[in-house]
Design goal:
Length: about 425
Amino acid sequence: MKKIIIIGAGHGGIITSSILSKNGFDITIYEKNKEDNLGYDWEDIFDITPFLKLGIPILKYKVNKQKNPMTIYNPSKKYKIKNKTNSRKIFMNRKELYKCLIDYAKESGVKFKFNSCVDDIIIKNDKVIGITVDNKAVFADLIIDSSGVDSKFSINIPEIEKIKPNEIFHIVRNIEKINSKNIKNDVFISTKRGISWIIENNCKDILIGSIGNLEDEYIDDEKKKLGVEFNNYKKYKIPVRRPLSQFVYNGYAMIGDSAAMTIPLNGSGLSLCALASKILSDVIIANKDSEFNKELLWQYQKLYYDSVSYSLSVLDAFKILLLKLDDKELNYIFKNINGYDKNSIIKRVVVIIKNIKNFKFIKQISNLLELRKEIKKVCKNIPENYDINKVNIWKDKYNLLFKDILKWLNIRW
């Protein structure tokens, strides 16, 4: 029986563990926190379809349907974009979601080692062969890194790209219990590389966030704009970028936030984790008698890229542009968009461009629209099989696209 160790009880890691354990693998998850400390005491909205397809009994737990559309305001709050409700999306408390996933994993035969901090991975002859926990070595046929955005385990693997500080969304979040039946779902865009929101749906959920850093002065300014006051909060981090250009190695695969598997415009990653879990599990199960080297695990990266890399990379490009806009430019966009549809947002931007005469970002957006073709071409041409020379050439092309974006926008990150 093949032995697999998962570092960190991230959503993607737990889902993968359940699928693999059901298919005869010996799975152990090492998590630094206690079981009761996993998850956050807030609700997030996400699409449950991938979870249901995997047989995860999520609807047996406490969930709330999305009752009203999200309204997005420009910095002056004068203009707004209203998103449509989605019957496939639900609100669910993160702790309740963790309970669902962990219960399902335990029923599937997964072993958990809570309150167990992994010190490092063990690399021998260019292969990850195990981990150290409390200075003790534990060996396995495959290590799956599900330890989150702060993962330290790929530092000694030069081939794997690292998430940069300016690709991390820093947030503070405060949850208050309320008795009001009023339902509010308001998001406020800031030109200081961030957003804030107030969501009232069984509780009052206040979030303030910024990309790159989050200073106390900025938090205080946003609280004033929102008309709220709170002092007890924790800071959190989420990757907001396209997927890493490589997240597999000999005996090692990354999943979830550690591999930047989130939507670049909002940091949501639950549905992407479920997708990645299915792909990774399918590859492992289909090759259960083989050595889990990077040539084999590249199939996982290739299939994930084929599924979502183009759309996520385009969103990352537009995220970079949006962070460059000033109040005047943002106001113009909000004023000229009469609704919001994630499937047609780029087409809407094209319409806006045709009506713009003097804004400095016309050329920048035009360049990005042209770059979409190149992004699609590069994403589509990810090597079918792992050949180090072909992979390195492809990675250089992929990452160069985003260096060009920063150059066109005259941004130094």
